[in-house]
């Protein structure tokens, strides 16, 4: 896969999956714009890419705010002039609590980042790609977009919604050279999974990790590079006729009838 001359825009680019994907794009020739709310981790991703000889820039943004999303799109165009690949990926887990005890404010926050943030990304990036008559978008859903996950009502609802947005957007733009797909990772070794493990068992998060891993046919979590591989494929010419669908990266868990953690 060669992305020479292409521009990749990545939200949540300071996090585990976003950073691995940003590096994957950069090592294959793309210029990469990293978007993250966290300045330190966003800039660290840029430094890693530049140290490896790539081209990257950072813009701080909150994906829940329309002005902020418009700003990251404008800054990408001002810096790199086009957007060929968009990884619409920023997300949060929220708290782990049964639905009857789940705080309304937390529900709003998770939906705002994971679902509205993805909508706003599509809303502001699609016009750019439609004007170019080309582009590929990958939204980050989850196996929690396919199944339930105990104690995660907002997260599960948001990720089901991301798959819905993926289907609608892909249908709307398919005739105009723009593709929209999603990835559905199972547990991946990132900060987000560590925080979930600690919430489920503050005294023994390792036990939760081991139990989750035991429920995966491969016996382990994915690493961020394995999600990046699917995103790169979905943004490349190799997937030219693939749109409106998703790739599951979960070590065989859903195939074996498992649920999200
Ligand atoms: P992560 O916490 O390492 O990265 C998430 C990044 O998103 C962080 O850098 C964070 O600062 C950023 N972010 C959060 N809110 C933001 C906002 N409002 N505006 C801009 N940036 C914001 O976690 P990750 O595992 O790399 O998660 C990336 C995506 O993958 C998320 O959408 C997550 O739901 C999804 N996912 C993760 C797993 C997993 O097991 N880690 C599994 C399935 C899906």
UniProtKB/TrEMBL annotation:
Return the SUPFAM superfamilies for the record.
NAD(P)-binding Rossmann-fold domains
Per UniProt, which keywords does this protein have? Oxidoreductase
Q: Which GO terms describe its molecular function?
A: oxidoreductase activity
Q: Which residues form the signal peptide?
A: none
Give the family per the record.
Belongs to the short-chain dehydrogenases/reductases (SDR) family.
Listed PANTHER family = DEHYDROGENASES, SHORT CHAIN, ESTRADIOL 17-BETA-DEHYDROGENASE 8-RELATED
Protein's recorded name = Short chain dehydrogenase
Q: Which organism does this record belong to?
A: Rhodopila globiformis (Rhodopseudomonas globiformis)
């Amino acid at each position: 896969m060669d992305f020479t001359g292409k521009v990749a825009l990545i939200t949540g680019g300071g996090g585990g999956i976003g950073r691995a994907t940003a590096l994957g794009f950069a090592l294959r020739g793309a210029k990469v714009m990293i978007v993250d709310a966290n300045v330190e981790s966003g800039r660290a991703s840029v430094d890693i890419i530049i140290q490896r000889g790539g081209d990257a820039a950072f813009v701080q943004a909150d994906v829940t705010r329309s002005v902020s999303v418009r700003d990251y799109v404008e800054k990408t165009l001002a810096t790199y002039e086009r957007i060929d690949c968009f990884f619409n990926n920023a997300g949060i887990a929220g708290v782990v609590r049964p639905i009857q005890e789940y705080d309304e404010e937390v529900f709003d926050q998770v939906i705002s980042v994971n679902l509205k943030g993805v909508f706003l990304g599509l809303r502001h990036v699609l016009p750019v790609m439609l004007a170019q008559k080309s582009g590929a978008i990958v939204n980050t859903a989850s196996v929690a977009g396919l199944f339930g996950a105990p104690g995660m009502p907002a997260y599960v609802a948001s990720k089901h919604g991301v798959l819905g947005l993926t289907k609608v957007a892909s249908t709307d733009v398919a005739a105009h050279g723009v593709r929209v797909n999603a990835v559905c990772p199972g547990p991946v070794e990132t900060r987000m999974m560590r925080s979930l493990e600690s919430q489920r068992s503050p005294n023994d998060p390792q036990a939760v990790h081991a139990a989750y891993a035991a429920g995966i046919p491969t016996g382990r979590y994915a690493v961020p590079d394995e999600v990046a591989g699917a995103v790169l494929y979905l943004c490349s010419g190799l997937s030219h006729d693939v749109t409106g669908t998703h790739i599951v990266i979960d070590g065989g868990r859903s195939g074996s009838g498992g649920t999200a953690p």
